[in-house]
Amino acid sequence: MKTTQWFLLLACVALGVVWIFIAQNWIFLNLFAGLLVGPGLGMDLNNYLQTGSSPAFTVLWAGCISALLIWIGITWTATPRSSSQTRLMQPMWWVATIVLCVFGWLCQGWFTVFTWKLRGLSPVDGSGINYYPVPPVGWLLLAGFVLLDVMILFWLPTLLASPRNYRLVVPGAVTLLGGR
Amino acid sequence: MKHIFAIGVGGTGAKCIEAVTHLHACGLFADESGNLARLGIFLVEPDQQSALLNRAQTAVGRYVAMRRLIGTGSDDFARGELRDYGQWSPLSSASGAMSLDQVFPKAVLRTQSAGLADLFDCLFPPDEQSADLEVGFRGRPPIGSAVMSRVSLEKEAQVGRWQQMLNDIQTAAGSGEPPVIHLFGSVFGGTGASGVPSLGQLLKNWLKRQGLNSVQVQASLMLPYFDFDGMGDQDTGVHAESRNFQLNTDAALQYLRTSGKACFDRVYLIGSDIKARYGFSIGGVSQSNAAHLVELLGALALRHPGSVSTGYAHVLSRADAQTICWEDIPDNEIVGAGLARGARFAVAWRNNFSREIGDAQKVSMPTFLSGAPWARRFFSTRSKNSTGTNSRGARPPIRDKEGLSIQNAIDQYCDTLLQWLNQISSNLGGSNFHQELFTPSLLTFSGYYINSLNRVVQGKARPNRSDSADTVERIKVRMDCLSSNAISHRGMAGLADCLWKLVL
Q1: Which long-range contacts (CB under 8 A, 24 or more apart) does A130-133 make?
Q2: Nearest Cα to A81, choosing from B475, B360, B465?
């Protein structure tokens, strides 16, 4: 890998950390609070972000980093004989992306609903319901942010830092980087 | 600039010319400043159907065609200028005569000079007089010498095949470094044994008459290096017999000792004690003897600087009786590097890059580029030419017809080069004799992508690189990482040129 690619990889990882642990929560609190907490539900958004949303996105972050390391490891050690052999990684990339998105949605479901149901606890005191009552629009928002997170945590670093002959395999790379 | 005029006489001479062509393609004929020589090729062969002649013409033709298509599109690849002066038969001046008794019409001889006719009968038995010379001089030097004695270089210089070459020799003699005329042929066969000394003498006399005393005439004379498997029978007629090779050689060397200096300024003698085995043939299309290392060594005589040579006859030997390695090759550092570059280029191009170009025709350019980032350095990412103010900047589309023609020409030349390299490294004769130059099994057009280059060349000419780093894939990565200034040319020729530079 070129030196600039190492730099871009580290920058993407740093960006991902800042995004997941700082920026995203700020956006939820300040821009989309009304979408995540329905009227009359009595849900404390801060509490939800700390015990519901953030753990889910943290697990998604770990999954994306793992997938990124696996991708870098495979493309770093592979010795493709031809461009068609190189292109065989493209469907692998899509599989990884789809798995990450589904994984992200499952994480949201787990930390918002399933973990409370399994433990028989209620995240909202006095509500009597054993899950976070996120409104439907809020679910759509969370699902959309999962997609956005996969793009930032997986697509972007693989776009900028895939090594050697794999550097244009990632979707969009030819359009964005092909002239370079 | 150095001018070399290489004349191949007979079948062995033609094989040496093939070797000369490939060495020239590998950039191994250069002057002291490193400028590539201008090479002229001329073939002398009465057997117009000779498979060996055809092979040499194919090698020359393919190189010339490739070079013409590449034009100025490369800096290092295929830069050696080669002029093909064609092919000439000594029988062409004999007005259609195809046998000795037609070249010297016996009926006329009997009428004009009975004594001469009797001498003719004494020197040549009836079967030699009537032998069809269309397939060559049948391994009989006396027949060839008699035919060659009818050749007039003065007449040929005015009309015919020799005209252009002799004119160019005169022109080259007047400009800078005097040219070299180098003949190739065997001393044990028919055409070469008779033709090489005869032509050498004719050329020396012609040069003297023209006042071109600075032009050197030298020759690579092949001593016996092969035997025939099988032999002719009574129905075969006059034919070459391997049992006569030593006798012919002895006679030729005796002639060289007494009269050699009238023919050549210096000679290079090379043969082999380990005889290759070839199928018996009287000539024609069936005489398809595989290339031999000895022909390569004979061709390398062109690299020997005549200015520092003090002797007349030069020979070569090897260090080990059962092995030949790079240390046995003259100037092995430079020659080894040149041949290694040629071999690795041919393998990498033919078995990888050319296949990639073929695959690129089947998919869209963005799809191809996604697996081949190196390609965007040479080809447009769009269907039309990319912007550029001159040929050095503009990148043509990968489906450009002109580019595909260049690809085809390079493919064809690489096939010829690979075949030759494969044969010289596998045609070794004795089962206990082996070579440490190339790996023959890799010097072939394979049906699949080849990635590893580390075993193509053996011994000290092999690049000092780990196996995992010596791959076509690494070359592609290096291409992708080159700065724009490092890539002088675009398109197919530029790709070949870049590969030529990076492959070693």
Answers
A1: A132/A43, A132/A48, A132/A52, A133/A38, A133/A41, A133/A43
A2: B475
Pairing mode of beta strands B434-436, B313-315: unpaired
Type of residue found at A57: F
Taking only the tens place, the pLDDT of each residue in B191-239 is 888 899 999 999 999 999 999 999 999 999 999 998 876 666 666 666 6
Side chain identity at residue B325, one-letter code: C
CB atoms within 10 A of CB A170: 27
- Residue pair B437/B427 in contact (Cβ under 8 Å)? The answer is no
User: Would the CB atoms of A87 and B381 count as touching at under 8 Å?
Assistant: no
Averaged pLDDT score across all residues of chain A: 88
- Three-class DSSP category at B97: coil
Q: A178 and B366 in contact (C-beta within 8 Å)?
A: yes
| pLDDT the model gives residue B382 | 76
CB contacts of B349 in chain A (<8 Å) are: none
- Closest CB to B471 among A79, A168, A175: A79
- Residue ranges of the alpha helices (H) in B71-113? 100-103, 106-112
pLDDT for B97 equals 62
Q: What is the pLDDT of residue B83?
A: 96
Contact B355 A165 (CB under 8 A): no
- Chain B residues whose CB is inside 8 A of the A79 CB are 451, 468, 471, 473
Q: What is the mean pLDDT of residues B74-91?
A: 93
Sort out which chain A residues have CB atoms less than 8 A from B468's CB and list them. Answer: 79
Residues A99 and A70: beta-carbon distance below 8 Å: no
Q: Nearest Cβ partner of B381 from A164, A173, A179?
A: A179
User: CA B434, CA B430: separation in Å to the nearest integer?
Assistant: 8
Q: How far is B366 from chain A (nearest CA, A)?
A: 6
Chain A neighbors of B450, CB-CB under 8 A = 81
Cα B416 from Cα B21, distance rounded (Å): 11
pLDDT at residue A40 in the model: 57
Minimal Cα–Cα distance from B449 to chain A, Å?
A: 6
Q: Least CB-CB distance to B473: which of A79, A167, A169?
A: A79
Structure confidence at residue A9 as a pLDDT band (50, 70, 90):
very high
Q: Chain A to chain B, count of Cβ pairs less than 8 Å apart?
A: 70
A137-157 burial string, b = 16+ CB within 10 Å, else e? Answer: ebbebbeebbeebbebbbbbb
N- to C-terminal Cα distance for chain B? Answer: 26
Inter-chain touch B370–A173, beta carbons under 8 Å: yes
Query: If we measure between CA atoms, which residue out of B400, B395, B408 comes closest to residue B350?
Result: B408
Q: How far is B359 from chain A (nearest CA, A)?
A: 8
**Angstroms from A169 CA to nearest CA on chain B:** 5
For residue B376, the distance in angstroms to the closest alpha carbon of chain A comes to 7
Mean pLDDT for all residues in chain B: 88
Q: Are A168 and B369 in contact (CB < 8 Å)?
A: yes
Tokens at B237, concatenated: 């007629």
Residues B362-410 pLDDT 10s: 999 999 999 999 999 999 987 655 554 344 568 999 999 999 999 999 9
Q: Is the pLDDT of residue B92 over 90?
A: no
